[in-house]
Specification:
Blueprint lengths: L13 E7 L2 E7 L2 E6 L2 E8 L3 H9 L1 E7 L5 H8 L14 E3 L5 E3 L3 E15 L2 E13 L8 H6 L17 H4 L6 E4 L5 E2 L35 E4 L1
Antiparallel strand pairs: 1-2, 1-5, 3-4, 4-9, 5-8, 6-7, 8-9, 10-11, 10-12
The protein binds fe (iii) ion (FE).
Fe (iii) ion (FE) binds next to loops.
Length: about 230
Protein backbone atom coordinates (compact mmCIF):
# COMPACT_ATOMS: atom_id res chain seq x y z
CA UNK A 1 0.00 0.00 0.00
CA UNK A 2 1.36 3.39 -1.01
CA UNK A 3 -0.04 6.03 1.36
CA UNK A 4 1.33 8.71 -0.97
CA UNK A 5 -1.84 8.07 -2.98
CA UNK A 6 -3.52 10.14 -0.28
CA UNK A 7 -1.45 13.11 -1.42
CA UNK A 8 -3.58 13.14 -4.57
CA UNK A 9 -6.68 14.14 -2.61
CA UNK A 10 -7.38 17.87 -2.74
CA UNK A 11 -8.28 20.13 0.17
CA UNK A 12 -8.63 23.74 1.20
CA UNK A 13 -6.96 25.60 4.05
CA UNK A 14 -9.21 27.01 6.76
CA UNK A 15 -9.11 28.46 10.25
CA UNK A 16 -11.68 26.71 12.47
CA UNK A 17 -12.55 28.70 15.58
CA UNK A 18 -14.61 28.14 18.70
CA UNK A 19 -14.92 29.43 22.23
CA UNK A 20 -15.24 28.32 25.82
CA UNK A 21 -16.78 30.94 28.08
CA UNK A 22 -15.01 34.15 27.08
CA UNK A 23 -11.93 32.39 25.67
CA UNK A 24 -11.38 32.02 21.94
CA UNK A 25 -9.25 29.54 20.10
CA UNK A 26 -8.71 28.58 16.49
CA UNK A 27 -6.65 26.22 14.39
CA UNK A 28 -5.80 25.45 10.81
CA UNK A 29 -7.89 22.68 9.27
CA UNK A 30 -7.89 21.33 5.75
CA UNK A 31 -10.88 19.04 6.25
CA UNK A 32 -13.94 21.27 5.96
CA UNK A 33 -16.63 20.22 3.53
CA UNK A 34 -20.28 20.64 2.75
CA UNK A 35 -22.45 17.61 3.50
CA UNK A 36 -25.89 18.74 2.35
CA UNK A 37 -27.67 21.90 1.25
CA UNK A 38 -31.13 21.58 2.84
CA UNK A 39 -30.42 22.57 5.53
CA UNK A 40 -26.90 23.76 4.71
CA UNK A 41 -24.63 21.39 6.64
CA UNK A 42 -20.87 21.13 6.88
CA UNK A 43 -18.43 18.72 8.52
CA UNK A 44 -14.98 19.30 10.01
CA UNK A 45 -12.41 16.83 11.33
CA UNK A 46 -10.53 17.97 14.45
CA UNK A 47 -7.78 16.23 16.44
CA UNK A 48 -9.00 15.25 19.92
CA UNK A 49 -5.84 16.66 21.50
CA UNK A 50 -6.40 20.17 20.17
CA UNK A 51 -7.76 22.94 22.37
CA UNK A 52 -10.22 23.85 19.60
CA UNK A 53 -11.66 20.33 19.94
CA UNK A 54 -12.26 20.95 23.65
CA UNK A 55 -13.89 24.30 22.90
CA UNK A 56 -16.20 22.89 20.20
CA UNK A 57 -17.26 20.05 22.50
CA UNK A 58 -18.03 22.56 25.20
CA UNK A 59 -19.80 25.26 23.14
CA UNK A 60 -21.20 23.03 20.36
CA UNK A 61 -20.59 25.81 17.86
CA UNK A 62 -17.75 26.53 15.46
CA UNK A 63 -16.83 29.01 12.76
CA UNK A 64 -14.74 28.54 9.62
CA UNK A 65 -12.63 31.26 7.97
CA UNK A 66 -11.84 30.43 4.34
CA UNK A 67 -8.27 31.57 3.71
CA UNK A 68 -7.23 33.32 0.50
CA UNK A 69 -4.20 32.34 -1.58
CA UNK A 70 -2.43 35.45 -0.31
CA UNK A 71 -2.52 34.28 3.32
CA UNK A 72 1.09 34.47 4.56
CA UNK A 73 2.88 31.44 6.01
CA UNK A 74 3.15 33.30 9.32
CA UNK A 75 -0.66 33.37 9.64
CA UNK A 76 -0.88 29.65 8.95
CA UNK A 77 1.96 29.13 11.42
CA UNK A 78 0.20 31.15 14.10
CA UNK A 79 -2.93 28.97 13.90
CA UNK A 80 -1.40 25.71 12.74
CA UNK A 81 1.83 25.23 14.64
CA UNK A 82 1.13 26.81 18.01
CA UNK A 83 -1.16 25.69 20.79
CA UNK A 84 -3.84 27.89 22.29
CA UNK A 85 -2.79 26.36 25.61
CA UNK A 86 0.46 28.34 25.36
CA UNK A 87 -0.32 31.44 23.33
CA UNK A 88 -3.30 33.66 22.54
CA UNK A 89 -3.61 32.86 18.86
CA UNK A 90 -5.66 35.98 18.21
CA UNK A 91 -2.98 38.31 19.51
CA UNK A 92 -2.29 40.76 16.67
CA UNK A 93 -4.81 39.09 14.34
CA UNK A 94 -7.70 41.23 13.07
CA UNK A 95 -11.03 39.48 13.56
CA UNK A 96 -14.77 40.07 13.92
CA UNK A 97 -17.42 38.19 15.83
CA UNK A 98 -20.16 36.07 14.27
CA UNK A 99 -23.75 36.38 15.60
CA UNK A 100 -23.01 33.60 18.13
CA UNK A 101 -19.88 35.42 19.27
CA UNK A 102 -17.26 33.30 17.48
CA UNK A 103 -14.18 35.02 16.04
CA UNK A 104 -13.49 34.86 12.33
CA UNK A 105 -10.51 36.37 10.55
CA UNK A 106 -10.96 39.49 8.45
CA UNK A 107 -7.55 39.61 6.72
CA UNK A 108 -6.60 37.12 3.98
CA UNK A 109 -10.09 35.63 4.37
CA UNK A 110 -12.63 35.23 1.56
CA UNK A 111 -15.66 33.98 3.47
CA UNK A 112 -16.75 32.69 6.79
CA UNK A 113 -19.27 30.14 8.07
CA UNK A 114 -20.82 29.69 11.48
CA UNK A 115 -22.38 26.34 12.44
CA UNK A 116 -24.08 24.61 15.34
CA UNK A 117 -23.01 21.02 15.97
CA UNK A 118 -25.76 18.50 15.19
CA UNK A 119 -23.69 15.30 15.45
CA UNK A 120 -20.17 14.31 16.41
CA UNK A 121 -18.50 11.08 15.36
CA UNK A 122 -15.32 9.87 17.02
CA UNK A 123 -12.89 8.39 14.51
CA UNK A 124 -9.59 7.19 15.98
CA UNK A 125 -7.55 10.32 16.78
CA UNK A 126 -10.12 12.77 15.45
CA UNK A 127 -13.74 13.80 15.87
CA UNK A 128 -15.90 14.68 12.90
CA UNK A 129 -18.19 17.51 13.93
CA UNK A 130 -21.22 17.90 11.69
CA UNK A 131 -22.80 21.32 11.92
CA UNK A 132 -25.86 23.09 10.57
CA UNK A 133 -25.03 26.52 9.19
CA UNK A 134 -26.32 29.35 11.37
CA UNK A 135 -24.63 32.21 9.49
CA UNK A 136 -22.31 32.74 6.51
CA UNK A 137 -20.90 35.64 4.54
CA UNK A 138 -18.63 36.28 1.57
CA UNK A 139 -16.06 38.85 2.69
CA UNK A 140 -14.26 39.59 -0.57
CA UNK A 141 -13.55 38.12 -4.02
CA UNK A 142 -10.40 36.08 -4.60
CA UNK A 143 -8.97 32.61 -4.96
CA UNK A 144 -9.24 30.31 -1.95
CA UNK A 145 -6.02 28.75 -0.69
CA UNK A 146 -5.84 25.06 -1.51
CA UNK A 147 -3.69 22.57 0.33
CA UNK A 148 -1.72 21.91 -2.86
CA UNK A 149 -1.01 25.64 -3.25
CA UNK A 150 0.13 25.82 0.36
CA UNK A 151 2.54 22.92 -0.14
CA UNK A 152 3.79 23.55 -3.66
CA UNK A 153 3.80 27.32 -4.02
CA UNK A 154 4.12 28.47 -0.42
CA UNK A 155 6.19 25.39 0.54
CA UNK A 156 4.26 24.93 3.78
CA UNK A 157 4.33 21.82 5.97
CA UNK A 158 1.82 19.70 7.87
CA UNK A 159 1.74 19.42 11.67
CA UNK A 160 1.63 15.91 13.18
CA UNK A 161 -1.87 16.45 14.62
CA UNK A 162 -3.42 17.08 11.19
CA UNK A 163 -5.73 14.37 9.82
CA UNK A 164 -3.68 14.26 6.63
CA UNK A 165 -0.22 14.13 8.21
CA UNK A 166 2.04 11.55 6.57
CA UNK A 167 5.53 11.11 8.07
CA UNK A 168 8.32 12.47 5.87
CA UNK A 169 10.27 9.85 3.95
CA UNK A 170 13.96 10.25 3.03
CA UNK A 171 13.11 11.24 -0.53
CA UNK A 172 10.77 14.03 0.61
CA UNK A 173 13.49 15.65 2.71
CA UNK A 174 16.68 15.09 0.73
CA UNK A 175 17.73 18.03 -1.30
CA UNK A 176 19.58 18.32 -4.58
CA UNK A 177 22.43 20.86 -4.51
CA UNK A 178 23.09 23.59 -1.88
CA UNK A 179 22.51 22.55 1.71
CA UNK A 180 18.96 23.02 2.84
CA UNK A 181 17.97 23.40 6.44
CA UNK A 182 14.93 21.96 8.16
CA UNK A 183 13.08 23.51 11.09
CA UNK A 184 13.08 20.96 13.90
CA UNK A 185 9.80 22.38 15.23
CA UNK A 186 7.56 22.40 12.16
CA UNK A 187 9.61 20.69 9.39
CA UNK A 188 9.67 23.79 7.18
CA UNK A 189 12.62 23.49 4.82
CA UNK A 190 14.72 26.54 4.03
CA UNK A 191 15.86 26.18 0.43
CA UNK A 192 18.66 28.65 -0.47
CA UNK A 193 17.65 28.43 -4.13
CA UNK A 194 14.25 29.86 -3.27
CA UNK A 195 15.12 32.13 -0.35
CA UNK A 196 12.27 33.67 1.63
CA UNK A 197 10.95 36.34 -0.76
CA UNK A 198 7.84 36.94 1.35
CA UNK A 199 10.19 38.52 3.88
CA UNK A 200 12.78 40.06 1.63
CA UNK A 201 15.31 37.19 1.45
CA UNK A 202 16.49 36.91 -2.16
CA UNK A 203 16.64 33.54 -3.90
CA UNK A 204 20.23 32.28 -3.73
CA UNK A 205 20.80 33.34 -0.10
CA UNK A 206 22.60 30.55 1.80
CA UNK A 207 21.30 29.68 5.25
CA UNK A 208 24.47 31.07 6.87
CA UNK A 209 23.84 34.47 5.26
CA UNK A 210 20.33 34.82 6.69
CA UNK A 211 20.14 37.64 9.26
CA UNK A 212 20.62 36.49 12.86
CA UNK A 213 17.06 37.53 13.68
CA UNK A 214 15.56 35.58 10.77
CA UNK A 215 12.90 33.16 11.98
CA UNK A 216 11.02 30.21 10.56
CA UNK A 217 8.29 31.61 8.25
CA UNK A 218 5.80 29.09 9.62
CA UNK A 219 6.42 28.63 13.33
CA UNK A 220 8.68 31.60 14.10
CA UNK A 221 11.44 29.45 15.62
CA UNK A 222 14.93 31.01 15.54
CA UNK A 223 17.79 29.92 13.25
CA UNK A 224 19.13 27.69 16.04
CA UNK A 225 16.09 25.43 15.60
CA UNK A 226 17.25 24.57 12.07
CA UNK A 227 19.30 21.53 11.14
CA UNK A 228 21.17 21.01 7.91
CA UNK A 229 19.72 18.28 5.74
CA UNK A 230 22.40 15.98 4.47
FE1 LIG B 1 9.33 26.11 11.92
Amino acid sequence: MDVKALHRLSYGVYVVTSKQGERFNGQIANTVFQISSEPPTVAISINKQNLTHEFIQSSQIFAVSVLAQDAPLSLIGQFGFKSGREVDKFSGIPYKLSPSGLPYLTDHTLAYLEAKVSQSIEVNTHTIFIGTLTDAAVLRPGEPMTYAYYHQVKRGTTPKAAPTFIPATPETVTAAAAPKYRCSICNYIYDPAKGDPERGIEPGTPFEKLPADWTCPICNAGKEAFEQIT
